[in-house]
Q: What sequence folds into this?
């Protein structure tokens, strides 16, 4: 079955960096785009970033553009989200999720989600 | 960005009730709307894509429909495991955006 497992969350000081990982199994990883979506405490869902199935395209939400970087390593079935210059507004649970589309550009429908990893920005 | 509004923001219901949640988009978007269910402390789960396509393994008591820019999620007979928060999401245009959620509780 499709599984996505996030890791790497924790407490990080304002202005510092943190790298999140999302390791996938149960499907052909190299055929799907992968997204990151976050949820601040008590709030709704906010799309953060996506990387295409072949890694050739990335997109970012405006609040994180220039600070976050998404990448993938198909040899490890893993997608990374590098968080940089974090602020309190980045405090959230970060979920990775699979794009439904196979071997084409992502359509932004997320059909499988990981359990999330929490990030707290605090001094 | 396309704005998605949901109503109601919360509702109280009983087991066996028929529940309807509506999501209104700020512009026409064909049928590119999905619905997700989220239970406390858990990840979202996809229920419906393209306004009315039920995800594999999702109970048939869930259904989706569309009329113009109004998208509706219906639970035909609420079960104990359905108490959760429901989000709509548009994926018609970039960036994808979510509704604020509808909490369904007892």
A:
């Amino acid at each position: 079955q499709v599984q996505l497992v996030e890791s790497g969350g924790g407490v990080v000081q304002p202005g510092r960096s943190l790298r999140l990982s999302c390791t996938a199994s149960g499907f052909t990883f190299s055929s799907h785009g992968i997204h990151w979506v976050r949820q601040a405490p008590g709030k709704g869902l906010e799309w953060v970033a996506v990387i295409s199935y072949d890694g050739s395209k990335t997109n970012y939400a405006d609040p994180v553009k220039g600070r976050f970087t998404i990448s993938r390593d198909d040899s490890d079935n893993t997608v990374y989200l590098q968080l940089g210059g974090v602020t309190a507004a980045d405090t959230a649970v970060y979920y990775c999720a699979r794009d439904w589309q196979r071997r084409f550009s992502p359509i932004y429908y997320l059909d499988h989600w990981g359990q999330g990893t929490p990030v707290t920005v605090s001094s | 960005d396309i704005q998605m509004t949901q109503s109601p923001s919360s509702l109280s219901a009983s087991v066996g009730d028929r529940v309807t949640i509506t999501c209104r988009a700020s512009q026409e978007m064909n049928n590119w709307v999905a619905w997700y269910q989220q239970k406390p402390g858990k990840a979202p789960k996809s229920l419906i894509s393209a306004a009315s396509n039920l995800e594999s393994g999702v109970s048939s008591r869930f259904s989706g429909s569309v009329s113009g820019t109004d998208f509706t999620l219906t639970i035909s007979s609420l079960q104990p495991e359905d108490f959760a928060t429901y989000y709509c999401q548009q994926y018609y245009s970039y960036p994808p955006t979510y509704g604020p959620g509808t909490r369904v509780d007892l």
